[in-house]
Amino acid sequence: MVEKKSSATTAAASSTSDKEKTNQPVYSEMAVRNNFSILENSRTCQAAASGIAGGALGLTGLYGFVFYFIFVLIQVCKVP
Q1: In the chain, how many domains are there?
Q2: Cα 67 from Cα 60, distance rounded (Å)
Q3: Would you write out the chain's pLDDT as a tens digit for each of its 80 residues?
């Protein structure tokens, strides 16, 4: 046999769970740190790859810097 809960009991339970939900953080700090770590590794690899590509193309001085800067801007615009 299934017992029905009174509406007052369910209303009190739902208001308690609403209060508990508002006190919980919306994000996980560990997940945010992990995402920043992955982005930092991605930027490091991108910097190395664009430097190697610029050197292989023989771009030095201002032209090499502009080449590197363009690739940095591409990655910044790609990642929101």
Answers
A1: 1
A2: 9
A3: 555 555 555 555 555 566 566 677 788 889 999 999 998 898 889 889 988 999 999 999 999 999 989 988 887 787 55
71 part of a folded domain: yes
Domain span at 74: 44-80
Give a yes or no: residue 77 inside a domain: yes
CB 46 within 8 A of CB 71: yes
Question: For 67, what's the count of Cα atoms within 13 Å in the CB-facing half-sphere?
Answer: 17
Residue 25 in any domain: the answer is no
The pTM of this model reads 0.56
Residue 50, token pair as written in the block: 């664009």
